[in-house]
Design a protein that fits this description.
By secondary structure, the chain is mostly helical. Helix content is 70%, strand content 0%. It is globular.
Length: 489
């Protein structure tokens, strides 16, 4: 069930209305049933996998708590990780593994291995697997007490607003809220609906419109010049941010309506002044997951510079592989790892250059220069992420640097990329609004200011956003409801 579908626009109000009408003691059961229904709308068989992961990690929490020796506790954690990652590996990386095995067999002049069955990637499996595994570690570290009620724990794993594409919640936050008493609160509901409306604006007005440009150019790249590919890549940077941020914002808003608070998953990442800062602000729930459950256990920065850089590369390569079973995702992760290593290793040199050239590093001009460099590096890496495979990514990069041809954007070059002038104008205006809102939000907390405005000032904002979504959103018979990018991960 997609957030941007008519089905969800019926499902969510019904679930919320019933949730506030039924007794407190059964609210979690209603949400659990609604969450499983939400997930089963894609494929009822998927529910078996999430149930298996839930049972494994819930039992592991019980066994860890009762473990009499450190070894027994560690073995339980290892068993939980092994079983869950084996399921994830099978459903997500089976074909990737087979392709690489067959590539090696081809070099050895051996026959190709052909599986006799199809493996379908369950939607959101990476998200709920990591969320469940974090609970296992949190119990092992005694950060949380094990949840004795398996159904309350099952709700933590399957909570429908953030189930499919995050944020990847922690048990210390979301599981604790399952036991809280939730009542209808007008101000909280109003704030949640505002977040949802802003999320729909990001998805339907910006992300899906930018996607038309991206898909048109990347799916027919031989018909376009380097400058058009560069524009499409910038549009993809806009698309993937608005697409993913929209899901997280709608999820956060929907959860808030019902009384739950989810963590922030983005904090204006394209305003970052370094790649390290970008990753503190982009997909925060995943980057902090890797920090807490992989980078720090590997040794973090406690064992010298070389070990720190090795750990960084491991984390980012694994992060790339988490995003997709393809070498272009691995390269994308490795590129960001290299960015991090070079950025950290070159800190003193950059300071020296600024001193020699008498550059004030605290001026707004220098900060914007850093933001432009960071955005350019991030956008370049997105080429590997968006391309169908590594060979296409290389072809795109080659075209941008050898066939730039800036004059090709004139005389119909822009409209040839999938959008007419009217839609190009809407996309530019919507992106400008996003930049303005993001800038104001980072300084003044504009969302909170809107919530605190007088009713006669607040409602024009609501109606304006609703008008923009209904009039300028990409939906209807010709387009249908488009899937969120991160559903495939």
């Amino acid at each position: 069930m997609l957030f941007n579908s008519l089905q969800f626009l019926i499902f969510f109000p019904v679930v919320t209305l019933v949730y506030f009408l039924i007794p407190q003691r059964v609210k979690y059961l209603w949400l659990l049933a609604a969450s499983y229904y939400f997930y089963m709308c894609w494929n009822p068989e998927y529910a078996i996998l999430i149930a298996v992961s839930t049972v494994i990690t819930w039992l592991s929490g019980i066994f860890i708590d009762k473990g009499k020796t450190p070894l027994a506790r560690k073995l339980t954690v290892a068993a939980s990780f092994t079983l869950n990652l084996a399921i994830l590996f099978y459903f997500k990386y089976f074909y990737f593994t087979m392709d690489n095995i067959n590539a090696v067999r081809a070099m050895l002049h051996l026959s190709e291995l052909k599986p006799k069955f199809d493996v379908i990637l369950p939607v959101g499996i990476s998200f709920y697997t990591f969320q469940a595994l974090s609970y296992t570690v949190d119990v092992y570290r005694r950060d949380v007490a094990p949840e004795k009620n398996p159904l309350k724990y099952a709700l933590f794993v399957s909570f429908f607003p953030q189930l499919v594409a995050g944020p990847i919640e922690r048990s210390k936050n979301l599981l604790a809220q399952v036991n809280d008493k939730h009542y209808f609160n007008y101000e909280r509901v109003r704030g949640g609906l505002l977040l949802m409306l802003w999320g729909f604006f990001l998805k339907l007005v910006i992300a899906d419109r930018a996607a038309i440009v991206v898909n048109t150019v990347y799916n027919n790249m031989a018909d376009f010049t380097g400058v058009q590919l560069a524009i499409a890549t910038v549009c993809f940077a806009l698309q993937i941010y608005c697409d993913f941020e929209s899901y997280s914002t709608i999820a956060k808003g929907a959860a808030r309506v019902m009384g739950f608070e989810l963590m922030d998953n983005f904090h204006h990442p394209y305003f970052s002044t370094s790649i390290a800062e970008f990753w503190r602000n982009w997909h925060i729930s995943l980057s902090t997951w890797f920090r807490d459950y992989l980078y720090i256990p590997l040794g973090g920065n406690r064992k010298g510079k070389l070990r720190k850089y090795f750990n960084l590369m491991v984390v980012f390569v694994v992060s790339g592989l988490w995003h997709g079973a393809s070498w272009n995702y691995v390269i994308w992760g490795a590129v960001h790892g290299i960015y991090q290593v070079i950025g950290d290793a070159g800190k003193n040199f950059r300071k020296f250059v600024c001193v020699v050239l008498d550059i004030d590093r605290e001026t707004p001009q220098y900060k914007w220069f850093q933001r432009c460099i960071t955005f350019s590096l991030v956008t370049f890496a997105w080429i590997f992420f968006r391309s169908a495979d590594l060979s296409q990514a290389i072809a795109v990069i080659k075209s941008i640097f050898t066939d730039f041809a800036p004059w090709s954007i004139y005389n119909g070059g822009i409209t040839a990329m999938g959008l007419d002038i009217a839609n190009v104008t809407v996309l530019i205006a919507a992106a400008a609004l996003l930049i303005a809102v993001s800038s104001a939000e980072s300084r003044d907390g504009i969302i909170r200011k809107i919530e605190g405005m007088h009713v006669f000032a607040r409602w024009p904002v609501y109606l304006g956003l609703l008008f923009a979504v209904l009039v300028f959103g990409i939906y209807g018979p010709e387009f249908s409801a488009s899937q969120f990018i991160y559903f495939q991960f």
